[in-house]
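Design a sequence for this backbone.
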């Protein structure tokens, strides 16, 4: 029987599902747990099997300076081989594994676009909107989907009502990803109104709203404007504040709504990460004329739903 040519996936999600199925089957045969996904091993095995003429033969830490988090590089001797690199100054296993997933995404999706190396910055790892850079967003979607497959991720987060960043720590360990990547994944699928805000030196560097929050018109345009952190926010108070989670009244993060903030300062030494959870339903934008402010208790109650 002639070998049937299997059609290549054309999307990041398609590739992630393809690789994920192979990994899942192999782990079942070996009677090993499915997670975390060991990208360094998979990248080499999978590429050797599927693309024997252009395999990934090197996965290594490399001195990439302060600017780059990872890279996909063709072997300079032009023999068809590829290497993927992560910045050897990074100590977080989760950040390294996510970076390798991102570079494997570039390999599967983009290596044939050009034979030039692709160098990726920390900001590239956070690009989820194609406005920023289409291939970076694609590489992230691939890594996110490969490392945190939706079937398992939904089960793990099914009890999340008003999560704190601390609740994402077990997920970071389960999937061996950065905390930021796990939070972004949840924001992508949740029905809650929530947002991640990454800030530096008192200013918002970038933020990402869940689709329901975005729909109610709550977001920051931090890429276009300079936006200072609210002075009373935990992110602005810094690591010495007495608490790492707090339900702020209306007027701190949002003029009209109380917002539940949790914060960590550890993942990137120079940055604060806040997770903001808003009430289940946003204020009605058409009711501005009503002079009655909603009772505070009612708004707090909405958090419990
Ligand atoms: Zn990249």
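Sequence:
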């Amino acid at each position: 029987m002639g070998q049937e040519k299997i059609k290549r996936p054309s999307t990041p999600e398609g590739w992630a599902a393809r690789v994920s199925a192979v990994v899942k089957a192999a782990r079942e045969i070996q009677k090993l747990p499915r997670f975390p996904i060991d990208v360094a091993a998979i990248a080499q095995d999978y590429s050797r099997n599927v693309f024997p003429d252009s395999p990934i033969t090197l996965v290594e830490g490399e001195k990439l300076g302060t600017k780059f988090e990872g890279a996909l590089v063709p072997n300079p001797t032009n023999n068809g081989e590829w290497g993927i690199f992560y910045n050897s100054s990074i100590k977080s296993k989760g950040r390294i594994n996510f970076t390798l997933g991102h570079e494997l995404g570039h390999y599967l999706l983009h290596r044939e676009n050009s034979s030039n190396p692709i160098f990726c910055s920390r900001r590239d790892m956070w690009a989820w909107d194609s406005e920023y850079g289409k291939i970076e967003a694609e590489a992230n979607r691939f890594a996110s989907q490969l490392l945190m497959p939706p079937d398992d991720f939904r089960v793990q987060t099914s009890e999340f009502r008003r999560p704190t960043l601390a609740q994402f720590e077990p997920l970071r360990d389960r999937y061996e990803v950065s905390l930021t990547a796990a939070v972004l994944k949840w924001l992508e699928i949740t029905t809650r109104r929530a947002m991640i805000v990454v800030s530096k030196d008192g200013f918002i560097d970038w933020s990402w709203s869940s689709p329901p929050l975005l729909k109610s018109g709550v977001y920051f345009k931090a890429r276009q404007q300079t936006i200072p952190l609210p002075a009373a926010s935990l992110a602005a108070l810094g690591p010495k504040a007495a608490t790492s989670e707090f339900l702020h009244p209306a007027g701190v993060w949002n003029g009209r709504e109380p917002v539940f903030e949790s914060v960590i300062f550890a993942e990137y030494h120079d940055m604060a990460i806040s997770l903001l959870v808003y009430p289940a339903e946003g204020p009605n934008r058409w009711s501005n004329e009503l002079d009655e402010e909603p009772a505070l208790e009612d708004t707090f109650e909405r958090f419990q739903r």
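Residues 154-304 form one domain.
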